[in-house]
What we know:
Blueprint: E1 2-7, E2 12-17, H1 34-49, H2 65-85, H3 96-104
Antiparallel strand pairs: 1-2
Amino acid sequence: MESYFTSFASNSTIPFTTASVVTTTAHSGGGVSSEVLGYIAVIVAVLLFGSNLVPVKKFETGDGVFFQWICCIAIWLTGLVLYGVRHFPTFYPIAMLGGFLWCTG
């Protein structure tokens, strides 16, 4: 079955077939299942995210507001660089909800 796709940039029609659509499965043979991988990721997150501020205890941080501000800037800049490295994929604003909830404690 052949259909046509209209390109908005060039205003031309490009033929394509539905048979050319490739489907993939979430689990491909002999690897670790996605459920097991998810549980491993949760365990790593529980162990590592809670200990990320332990080295800071060696230093005087005052009330911690400046330190938190620097951490937020570093996290944002890291995300911005990775966003650029990934060639600026589609941005979903609902994803900011997780960051907002994380920042509010």
